[in-house]
Every structure is written in C-alpha cells, then in structure tokens.
User: Fold these one by one.
Assistant:
Number 1:
Amino acid sequence: MQSVILSRSMIRAAVLSLALLAIGACGRKKEQPTTETSGGAIAPGSAVQVADVTLGRSVDAGSKVMNATDTFSMRDTIFASVHTTGASPNAILVARWVYQDGQVVNETSENISPTGDAYTEFHVSKPSGWPAGKYTVKVLVNGQEVQSKDFTVK
C-alpha cells in the first residue's frame, strides 16, 4: 500500500514539475537581434523601421523638416522629423536629446501606428538659451536605439 502511495506522489510531483517547466518556457521571449539595413534600422520585434532623421528649425504640416540643418543658435527651437517605414498597430517612438557630456536634456515619446511611410515630429526649445556645444538626438523604437543624429549649438 505504501509503494502505491509513493508511486502516485512521485507521478504527481513529476507532472507538476513538467507543468512548471512548460509554463516557464512559454513565458520566455526569443531574443531577436537588431538588424541594420541600408535604409535604416529595425528595432528587435518590430516591423517599424527608421529610414531617416532630419533636423531643422521648422516642420511642415506633414511633420517633415523644412530647410534641414545641423547647426542651431542658442534660442532656436530644434525640430527632428523621424521618417519611419513599415507597419505596426502600436509602436513607441522616442526622441532622446543629449548634451555633449551625456546629460539627457529632454526625452519625449509618441505612440505610433504606421501603415507605411510616416513622419513623426519631435522638438525641443529652451527660452533661456541652449548652452553652446555638441548635441545628439537618439531615436528609439520600442525601447531600442535605432538611429542618432548629431548637431551643434553655436
């Protein structure tokens, strides 16, 4: 009788162990590498690709930069137009503005649902004036940095 009870207990323990292993395996996501292409970069697990980032002092109604530049004055509003391709029902696009010493001066995000070519506008301003120096805007898709653009404030 004891051997029957032990056998049932051992079977239950084995079944429970297998069930826990299966649950743990289902929760894991397979890591996908970031893919660089000639047209831009794709974030892991995303069908949205950043084709280009353009900087300037203004954008048009379609969120495209007018008169692209990478040199700004201290009181300029700095615009970044992020051109994306691909489709996604929900992607998070982030612009992280960084000063030359690594300090993040601004970060904004937009939830996008593109179905092809799309442009998203980001901008920063500082009424008291930007410190002169080198800056970078880093563009992230779903938390992964996919492109950056350097600029100068004089």
Number 2:
Amino acid sequence: MHKKSIGLFVGSLRTASYSKKLANAIISMAPDGFDFTIIPIGNLPLYNQDYDDHNQVPEAYTVFREALAQVHGVIFITPEYNRSLPAVLKNALDVGSRPYGKNNWNGRPGMVISCSAGGLSGFGANHHLRQSLVFLNVPVLQQPEVYLANVKDCFDETGALTERSAKFLQKAVDAYVEWFGKIA
C-alpha cells in the first residue's frame, strides 16, 4: 500500500509559534499508511499574476506548487490575525491555485485547526479560511471543529502537548483520517 501524503500548512512565520508547535505534534499523530509533512509557505513572494502571464515564475512558486501537487490531503493550522487568516496563508492559497486553470488545491480533502492566544480560538481565521477553500474546491472536515483558545495552555512547561490537548487533537486527526478514507 502506498502511503497517503498529507501536507500541513502553518499560518504563522514566528519561530516559536504555537501553530508550528501544534503542527509538529500532529506529525507524530499520523497513523500507519499516512505521512504528514509541513510544507513551508514563508518564502513565497506575494502572488502577482504577471509572474505567470510573462513566464517569470519565481522558483519558490514552482517548488511550492510541485510539493502541493504531490500531497493527497491538506491540514491547515493557523492563528488568527485581526479576526482573519494570516496573509502568508492566504498568499499560499493564491500561489497554489494559479495559474488560472491549474488549481493544485482542487479536490484535496482538508482540515482546519485554528488557535489564538485569547478566548476566541481563531474563529474568524477558521471561517475565512473555509470560505476560500470552498472556492478552491477543497472539501473540509466539518466535525469535529478544532478551535483552540488560550493556546499556550495546550502545552506544558516542557513545551509538550498536555495530555488533554493531545487526546483532543488525536481524536480530530483520527476523524480526519477516517473521513479522508471515505472521500479520497
């Protein structure tokens, strides 16, 4: 059996971001037959259609688009910036969906995990991301929804997920994998 490759996309560039810590923890939750890998998005120049129109595509676009084309599914782990998704994540959506007619996101089963330092748990980021994913034809796991408020409390003093957080995220990953098997 060939392993199913799931790309993880982290919406924060900060070195010690909680989104990155969550993504790294989720990698270890991949079941047999699945390979979870973070696909970097921080080096992508802002999307400009001129690059595609005039055959001046930055190498970072090409590398990203090729990596995206190789995955079978996608998981987004994102903080919330100003009640929406971070620009770096929206840029990755745009770069991956172009040039017109070559949407590399198309049909890849997705999951959204949002988090925030405060009590709103990234609700705005989660739903704005889902709105874009509808247009990109990325079916998204509906339940369980994963909103992590006060995300720093998901980790213990050593930086590891707390037992409660690990169990919650493992259930979400298991639900995604089961759902992925039904629709992929």
